From TrEMBL:
Pfam families per the UniProt record, alphabetical: LacI, Peripla_BP_3
Keywords: DNA-binding, Transcription, Transcription regulation
Membrane-spanning residues: none
Region listing for Disordered, in residue ranges: 324-350
GO MF: DNA-binding transcription factor activity; transcription cis-regulatory region binding
Domain HTH lacI-type positions: 11-66
PANTHER family assigned: LACI-RELATED TRANSCRIPTIONAL REPRESSOR, LACTOSE OPERON REPRESSOR
Protein name as catalogued: LacI family transcriptional regulator
Organism, scientific name: Naasia lichenicola
């Protein structure tokens, strides 16, 4: 049976790619058109598989692949979070240079799940979807997300991820070295003389938060800090989450104590809570964060953190999504983003 659009409902572009033993991106470039040439042997295989399977070209997919859409979509956890807003600023600046419009969708508390966000975006036919929200360590949710993205890519869309790797067919990832950055921060704090650590770990089911917690723990272990000297409290990745989490800690009065929050936003909330209890960050207890969000310019004492080029990450994510792959790869690659430890007033040497 053939649908009104002329397409056999049982044959997708993904089927053609699988039969031809090429990537979905390669099959899309052959079927839907691209400015980048595909190797003749790969092109012949895709066309032969298309004819054999009875695949019918989707006109909407062709227009999307050729750039008819003038929008790109950015999926973030919470646009009010300075981490995401800084990335969004980079995406918007890069899009503006290309005369593209940016649609922003959130997946934070009260928002859509990522797969639901992608499903809602697909009818809008964005040229690319950029996913900046942290991956959930939930295999069922991840499978649903990858299914939605596969359908979107099959119609000519482009995808890029920020932060963690993914098993998706696009494999366009701006990889942020969260684990390595947290590990280096821990070693730097030990070098300053700190011996007792508490971690505000954020949600336990978020990949970014987990990577930062694990990296920090690895750094402490390499410096001889026993696990029994480390206290971990989980909570929302928000200012209020950090405020509430620090109040649960038991070891704040221990000499050489330092609180590490997996995001600067949580660290700022923790600092406010400590001050309300009569403890001055940087004098009575050390505090460190991660990200180096712009807001820190107005925070006192100046917060020790792992600095990430958030604006540049946003630019890179859009450029990566829209780039054609290199000749020897089905998808373009981005350089890993490494954080830089910034030691400031909130963690003075002991």
């Amino acid at each position: 049976m053939v649908s009104r659009s002329g397409r056999s409902p049982s044959v997708t572009l993904a089927d053609v790619a699988s039969h031809a033993q090429v990537s979905l991106a390669t099959a899309s470039r052959v079927i839907n058109g691209s400015t980048r040439q595909v190797q003749p042997d790969l092109r012949d295989r895709v066309l032969a598989s298309s004819r054999l399977l009875g695949y019918v070209v989707d006109e909407q997919a062709q227009s999307m692949a050729r750039g008819a859409s003038q929008t790109v979509a950015l999926v973030v956890g919470d646009i009010a979070d300075p981490y995401f807003s800084a990335i969004a600023a980079g995406v918007s600046a890069a899009a503006s240079r290309l005369r593209l419009t940016v649609i922003i969708t959130t997946t934070g508390p009260g928002g859509l799940a990522e797969h639901e966000a992608v499903a809602a975006l697909r009818p809008k036919r964005p040229l690319a979807i950029l996913l900046a929200a942290s991956r959930h360590l939930d295999s069922a949710g991840e499978e649903l997300l990858l299914e939605e993205l596969a359908g979107y890519e099959a119609r000519g869309g482009r995808v890029s991820f920020i932060g963690a790797d993914t098993g998706g067919s696009a494999a366009r990832v701006v990889r942020v070295q969260n684990r390595a950055g947290a590990r280096e921060l821990a070693r730097s704090l030990i070098h300053l003389g700190y011996t007792r650590f508490s971690i505000l770990g954020g949600p336990s089911d978020l990949a970014t938060a987990r990577a930062r917690v694990d990296g920090f723990a690895e750094g402490l272990a390499s410096g001889g800090i026993a696990a029994s000297s480390v206290e971990i409290v989980h909570g929302p990745l928000t200012r209020d989450g950090g405020h509430a989490a620090v109040l649960e800690l038991q070891g704040l009065n221990h000499p050489g104590a330092c609180v590490f929050a997996v995001t600067d936003v949580m660290a700022v909330g923790a600092m406010t809570a400590l001050i309300s209890q009569g403890r001055m960050p940087g004098r009575d207890i050390a505090v460190a964060g991660f990200d180096d969000i712009p807001l820190l310019q107005d925070v006192r004492p100046a917060l020790t953190t792992v600095a990430l080029p958030l604006f540049d990450i946003g630019v890179q994510a859009l450029e990566l999504a829209l780039a054609d792959p290199s000749p020897d790869s089905s998808s373009p690659e981005a350089d890993d983003v490494r954080g830089v430890v910034r030691l400031r007033e909130s963690t003075p040497p002991l």
